[in-house]
Amino acid sequence: MTVMAHDADRRPPSTWPREYGLVRPDGGAWIWLSDTHVLAALAAAAPVWALLVMTVGDRMHVTTGWAGWITLVLAQPLIEEIVFRGVLQGQLLQMGLSRRHGPFTNANLVTTVCFVGAHLFTQPPAWALAVSVPSLVFGHLRERFGSVWPAVFVHAIYNAGFALAAWWVHA
């Protein structure tokens, strides 16, 4: 007796996890940590934190309590990267906005404008504009590895460093 497969059984597996970057980074789960682009992104952060301490100083907002730290260092990077670099940038890439301008695609540029716009709701304009460079970095990492997870990691490090710098100024 021959069993006939249903049409649903013959469909290719869903591609949305890859489209949204919700997959293991290309090259392996943790190999991206030694990538020169990731290392450069991490190395660039310390001078920025020092510059913020010297120029903004006590106007920096200090994160208090465990809930504040967990939100800033874990929840915000995870949610923002999935929404902006995963869903939005992923959809823009699927729509064909993959033309490059140096290391940045049109999808990354549009996503960055949206990311800055979202920060305008909670930050003064200068602070919201300041997230444009990190946003471009996160978008570049998302495209470089086909995954949001390296961007989530670097975003979490950036937020933690910023919070530690603010804490240090106020200590």
How would you describe what is shown here?
It is built from eight helices and two strands. It has a two-stranded antiparallel sheet with strand order 1-2. Helices cover 67% and strands 2% of the residues. It has helices spanning 7-10, 16-19, 36-55, 65-94, 106-119, 125-130, 132-145, 149-170, and strands spanning 100-101, 104-105. β1 (100-101) and β2 (104-105) form a beta hairpin. By secondary structure, the chain is mainly α. The chain has one domain (37-53, 64-170). α3 runs parallel beside α8 (149-170), α4 (65-94) packs antiparallel against α5 (106-119) and α4 (65-94) packs antiparallel against α8 (149-170).
Low-confidence stretches: none
Quickly count the helices: 8
- Total beta strands: 2
- Proportion in helices: 55-70%
Strand arrangement within the widest β-sheet reads 1-2
- What summary fits the major beta sheet? 2 strands, antiparallel
Notable traits:
171 residues, two-stranded antiparallel ribbon, globular, 2 strands, single chain, mainly alpha, 8 helices
Give the structure's gist in a few sentences.
The protein is built from 8 helices and 2 strands, in the order ααααββαααα. The protein is an all-alpha fold and 171 residues long. The chain has one domain.
Give the topology, please.
Layout: H1 7-10, H2 16-19, H3 36-55, H4 65-94, E1 100-101, E2 104-105, H5 106-119, H6 125-130, H7 132-145, H8 149-170
Antiparallel strand pairs: 1-2
Helix pairs in contact: 3-8, 4-5, 4-8, 5-7, 7-8
